């Protein structure tokens, strides 16, 4: 079986037999498509035999017969529609593979540059140069009327939705690799925030002004900035619709929208934020209020809450608590304070290796741990918080706690324009490959950051490692190549257990420890003064002067060696799977 890969999600080959299906399954193919009608030749295996073999091996079967030498535009449209329904990778076959390759090229004409199409087919061993004019014609015909008549019809090699850490870092990394690339960023905000610094603002270490810069200062000069919000996605037409109705086209789309803080999910919370002792370091405007409360609190009950996952920077709720406790400890106030950590989850931290060091500080500060306590409502005037408590039997009860100060971490969701889009998974998050960061259904779309469904910690450190992976794979995709840069799930959470010491949690997928520094320099599972220096002095500079400028210090992506067989085994379909 001679397999030729066109993209990570589709390969083609000549006629296969039922015996080949098991081999195809072992190579990672999740679906097989026949583009060859029965009885084309006497030695041709029956399609029903291959279909039955697919059923035995758990491989999906698709049948789209096309007459050799008579491929119509309708055939190409049917191919595109069928690919939209397939969960790949898929192996398509005909007599020689040429028919399948041609169908793919014609189906992708409205969305891929003709040179990228022909380069991909040539690399797979099929010369389709004779189809150039037809591919061009289909590309023009494939544009819907609204795309031709609405807006300015502007189109970019790479369009980025989101000008936060992810979007800016990807743009900078792309320009480092290819300075003449036509890039645009859609971003409505005029300010860019260094959000990891807000914990230190709330702890009296940073000034709030040190965590923000004008967006125009961090936006690369070579990038077109659409100072507007993205409204909807039209991946079938390779367009993003802005809030004013203008449509912006792209060859490759990068989506980095962040996430949404759902303050309204907790009744009474929004109305009392910033007053009545209710605060949160998750807001730029409120972090200074946290520090004011810490300094003014001398006795009574202080609550720190954490909602169900996922949230960005899962350690942030307890970072605020530790810094507050350290201040109270240094000022001999702990004896007069009842401090409680109310966590909707069942563990102090998701990676067990770091829990022993954290527990030492829980005991030192006399913190009461309340697991399976989910904040349900806040009454600022009465200074009470209502929690839903789940016991070991799964039964839920309600308990009310008074407070003098409460630091709230709100529930967090995907942005609505993502959740309501074709790009979302069942839970509303960007549906991405956890390794390549490519969208699982639309191969000309990549994503990164807090809005994705990849199972990594949602931290700026994760974005720092994701951005070069996305940049590398976007450029390869523009050239018609398979993504080969791999993200290992790295995330970092510098847990500020006291002023001057940090437990530097660094881990990847599955909780695997991924320390940046040797153990003799920084023992990540223990409190470290050097880690504090890194957090306070080095990381802000690394963010502004390194990450946002495409300098990939300690963040070079891993590139897999080329393998003509299937490399991406995620549930996916054709790399431009858009009917």
Automatic annotation (TrEMBL):
InterPro entries registered for this protein in UniProt: BLH_phosphatase-like, FAD/NAD-bd_sf, FAD/NAD-binding_dom, Prot-tyrosine_phosphatase-like, Sulphide_quinone_reductase
Alphabetical keyword list: FAD, Flavoprotein, Oxidoreductase, Quinone, Transit peptide
A Pfam family recorded for this sequence: Pyr_redox_2
Biological process terms in GO annotation: sulfide oxidation, using sulfide:quinone oxidoreductase
Essential cofactor(s): FAD
Beta-lactamase hydrolase-like protein phosphatase-like domain ranges (all copies): 2-109
Keyword Cytoplasm: no
Gene3D superfamilies: FAD/NAD(P)-binding domain, Protein tyrosine phosphatase superfamily
Tagged with keyword Flavoprotein: yes
GO molecular function, one term: FAD binding
Residues annotated as domain FAD/NAD(P)-binding: 156-272
UniProt name for this protein: TIGR01244 family phosphatase
Origin species: Motiliproteus coralliicola
């Amino acid at each position: 079986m001679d397999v030729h890969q066109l993209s990570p999600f589709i390969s083609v080959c000549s006629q296969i037999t039922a015996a080949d299906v098991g081999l195809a399954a072992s190579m990672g193919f999740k679906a097989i498509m026949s583009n060859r009608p029965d009885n084309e030749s006497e030695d041709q295996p029956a399609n029903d035999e291959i279909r039955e073999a697919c059923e035995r091996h758990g491989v999906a079967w698709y049948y789209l017969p096309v007459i050799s030498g008579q491929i119509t535009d309708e055939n190409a449209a049917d191919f595109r529609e069928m690919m939209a329904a397939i969960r790949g990778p898929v192996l398509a076959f005909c007599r020689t593979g040429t028919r399948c390759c041609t169908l793919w090229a014609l189906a992708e004409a409205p969305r891929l540059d003709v040179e990228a199409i022909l380069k991909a087919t040539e690399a797979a061993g099929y010369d389709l140069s004779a189809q150039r004019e037809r591919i061009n014609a289909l590309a023009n015909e494939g544009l819907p009327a609204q795309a031709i008549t609405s807006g300015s019809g502007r189109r970019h090699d790479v369009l980025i939705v989101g000008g936060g850490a992810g979007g800016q870092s990807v743009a900078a990394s792309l320009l480092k690799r290819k300075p003449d690339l036509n890039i645009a960023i859609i971003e409505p905000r005029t300010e860019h925030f260094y959000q990891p610094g807000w914990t230190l603002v709330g702890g009296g270490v940073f000034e709030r002004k040190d965590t923000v810069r004008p967006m125009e200062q961090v936006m690369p000069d070579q990038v077109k900035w659409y100072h507007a919000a993205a409204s909807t996605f039209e991946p079938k037409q390779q367009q993003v619709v802005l809030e004013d109705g203008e449509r912006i086209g792209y060859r490759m789309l990068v989506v980095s929208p962040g996430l949404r803080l759902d303050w309204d999910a907790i009744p009474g919370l929004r109305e009392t934020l910033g007053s009545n002792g209710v605060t949160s370091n998750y807001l730029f405007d409120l972090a200074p209020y946290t520090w004011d409360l810490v300094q003014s609190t001398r006795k009574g009950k202080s609550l720190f809450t954490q909602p169900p996952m996922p949230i960005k920077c899962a350690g942030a709720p307890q970072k605020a608590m530790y810094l507050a406790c350290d201040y109270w400890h240094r000022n001999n106030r702990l004896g007069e304070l009842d401090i409680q950590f109310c966590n909707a989850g069942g563990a102090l931290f998701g990676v067990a290796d770091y829990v022993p060091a954290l527990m030492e500080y829980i005991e030192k500060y006399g913190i009461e741990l309340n697991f399976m306590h989910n904040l349900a409502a806040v009454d600022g005037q009465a200074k009470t918080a209502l929690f839903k408590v789940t016991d070991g039997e799964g039964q839920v009860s309600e308990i009310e706690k008074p407070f003098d100060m409460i630091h709230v971490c709100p529930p967090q969701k995907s942005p609505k324009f993502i959740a309501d889009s074709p790009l979302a998974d069942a839970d509303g998050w960007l549906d991405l490959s956890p390794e390549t960061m490519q969208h699982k259904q639309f191969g000309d779309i990549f994503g990164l950051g807090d809005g994705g469904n990849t199972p990594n910690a949602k931290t700026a450190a994760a974005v720092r490692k994701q951005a070069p992976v996305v940049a590398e794979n976007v450029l390869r995709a523009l050239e018609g190549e398979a993504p080969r840069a791999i993200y290992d799930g790295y995330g970092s959470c510098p847990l500020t257990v006291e002023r001057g010491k940090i437990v530097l949690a660094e881990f990847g997928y599955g909780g695997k420890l991924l320390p940046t520094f040797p153990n003799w320099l920084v023992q990540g599972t223990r409190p470290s003064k050097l880690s504090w220096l890194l957090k306070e002095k080095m990381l802000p500079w690394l963010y502004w002067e390194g990450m946002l400028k495409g300098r990939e210090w300690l963040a070079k992506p891993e590139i897999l060696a080329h393998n003509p067989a299937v490399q991406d085994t995620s549930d996916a379909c054709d790399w431009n799977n858009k009917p």
